[in-house]
Specification:
mainly alpha
Length: 71
Amino acid sequence: GILVRKSTPRGAMLGVLAGILVALWGTLCQDLPAEYAQFNFPLHPFLIGPMGTLAIVLIGWVGSLGGRNEL
C-alpha cells in the first residue's frame, strides 16, 4: 500500500466501519436537545468528511497491524 507495507481486509473493513460511524455521528448529532448535548458533534459541519476520512485511514492502519489476512 501507499501508507503501510501490508494492509489487510480486516483493517479495511474496520476503517470503513469507523468512517461510516463518524459520518453518521456528525450528521445526525447536531443541535440535539439539552439533555443529550454531550453527544453533539463538536466540530463545524464542514469537518464531518475530513474526520470520517481520518477515521478510515487511522483505524484501517491500526486494524492492519495485527497481521492476520482473514476477516
